């Protein structure tokens, strides 16, 4: 096991979850989202998106923190980088925007770890792939997913139009129908790490 | 992309594939395999298994080398470690046994890279998981999958009861029915690497 990287994981009960102002929804329909993506691509080129894998544990098993909008869309916390923005700094900004008090003067210190996976969007469509498909010279989006090492306690504040979920890895695995290809394969991407349940 | 690890990948045409003596089949039926696993567990405890991800490319897209027995069972090259054997040395031994001339005095230099994934077998059953499921204190097998960096040319010799396949990543992705959960999620596990098609 010497080749394993260690991720320290703390109990869910170490964390508190409050509410904050709702985030304005940029798109109501998926088609709006794809239209906006197309317009942005014309202006800025390849869209780069970053997301974080935040882990806690309960009943001796690791759980992934996810954000849910309404009763359907489930996502990792993260978002789109500004043109030219550093991916680590951009992920910290997005984590604060999605998970922390915006008003507090003390901002959380996000510790961003290794890249766990990368997904490519070849066209202005919903499907992404864990490789750039053949014959695609100009992919439209690249999404990078990073491990986020949580400290042993933290107060999260979640926009009130979002719900936060802690989902066990065994529920995600092989569950493409509910979580989609990206989130349902996070257990495989985490498997090379030694998750140290403290 | 600076956080990416690079894997150099060479064209399939750089490699040659010959035949060698067949490997004796230890088990004819799956039930024999599980029985043998049970007997070995009683004697040696946790079974540790190692496998290699060997990549080539064709038509500008990465392909994974796989071994097929008969018309069904498709596996990564690898095998079981001897009790106490170092996992890197054990993987080199298994790669030579499955992919190289046994008679040649010059043995290939296998360059074993990063661990890409780990799978656990909680019971003497076929299913494995990319985590140790809750309430399992004594998993029966741990399988670790490593990147193998191929040199830019090599002569493979395959036991004549096995076939070697080069399968594109886009064919593996989301194809659990044909390749099983472990092999079909290799594209996700590789996604964090920058595959440099030379």
From TrEMBL, chains A, B:
One of its GO terms (molecular function) is mRNA binding. Pfam families: NUDIX_2. One of its GO terms (cellular component) is mRNA cleavage factor complex. CDD domains: NUDIX_Cfim25_Nudt21 (cd18871). The keyword RNA-binding applies. InterPro entries: Cleav_polyA_spec_factor_su5 (IPR016706), NUDIX_hydrolase-like_dom_sf (IPR015797), NUDIX_hydrolase_dom (IPR000086). PROSITE patterns: NUDIX. The keyword RNA-binding applies. It is found in: Nucleus. GO terms for biological process: mRNA 3'-end processing. It comes from the Eukaryota. Residues 46-172 form the Nudix hydrolase domain. Belongs to the Nudix hydrolase family. CPSF5 subfamily. Component of the cleavage factor Im (CFIm) complex that plays a key role in pre-mRNA 3'-processing. Involved in association with CPSF6 or CPSF7 in pre-MRNA 3'-end poly(A) site cleavage and poly(A) addition. NUDT21/CPSF5 binds to cleavage and polyadenylation RNA substrates. The homodimer mediates simultaneous sequence-specific recognition of two 5'-UGUA-3' elements within the pre-mRNA. Binds to, but does not hydrolyze mono- and di-adenosine nucleotides. May have a role in mRNA export. This is Pre-mRNA cleavage factor Im 25 kDa subunit.
